[in-house]
Request: fold
Amino acid sequence: MSPVGGVGINLAIQDAVATANLLAQPLRGGRVAEADLAKVQTRRAWPTEMTQRVQLMVQNHVIKRVLDSTVQLTPPSALRLLARFPVLRRIPARMIGLGVRPEHVQTPVY
Ligand SMILES: Cc1cc2nc3c(=O)[nH]c(=O)nc-3n(C[C@H](O)[C@H](O)[C@H](O)COP(=O)(O)OP(=O)(O)OC[C@H]3O[C@@H](n4cnc5c(N)ncnc54)[C@H](O)[C@@H]3O)c2cc1C
Reply:
C-alpha cells in the first residue's frame, strides 16, 4: 500500500469490518471454507484497487510534478476547485475517511 493519503489504516479497518460481517457466522459454526475467504477477497479487492489507482494518480500527477519542478507551479485544476468551493472538500474527505466502499458492522451481538 502506498503511503499517499495515509489511508492504510482506514482500509485495514474497512477490511476488518467486512471480514467480520462475512466470517462471523462460519466462525461460530466452527467451519470456515475457502469459499468464505474468497467472499472477503471479492468484496475488498475492488475498493483496494480503486484506492491504489487514486494514490498512483496523486503520486504521478501531483507529488512527482512538485518534486521534479524547479519553477513555481500552479496547483492542478481539481485542487483549485477545492480551494474555491470549500463544500467540495467533503468529497475527498469522505473518500479518505470512509473509503470507496464504506463498510458497516452487521454482525449480531452474541
Ligand atoms: C512504516 C509504515 C508507516 C505507515 N504509516 C501509516 C500512516 O501514517 N497512516 C496509515 O493509515 N497507514 C500507515 N501505514 C500502513 C498501515 O500500517 C497498514 O496499511 C495497515 O497496518 C494494514 O493493516 P492490516 O491489518 O491489513 O495488516 P497488518 O497490520 O500487516 O496486520 C497483519 C497481521 O497479521 C499477522 N500475520 C501475518 N501472517 C500471519 C500468519 N500466518 N498467522 C498469524 N498471523 C499472521 C502479522 O504479524 C500482523 O500482525 C504505514 C505502514 C508502514 C509500514
Remarks:
- The mean pLDDT is 93.
- The chain has one domain: 4-98.
- The two ends are 34 Å apart (CA to CA).
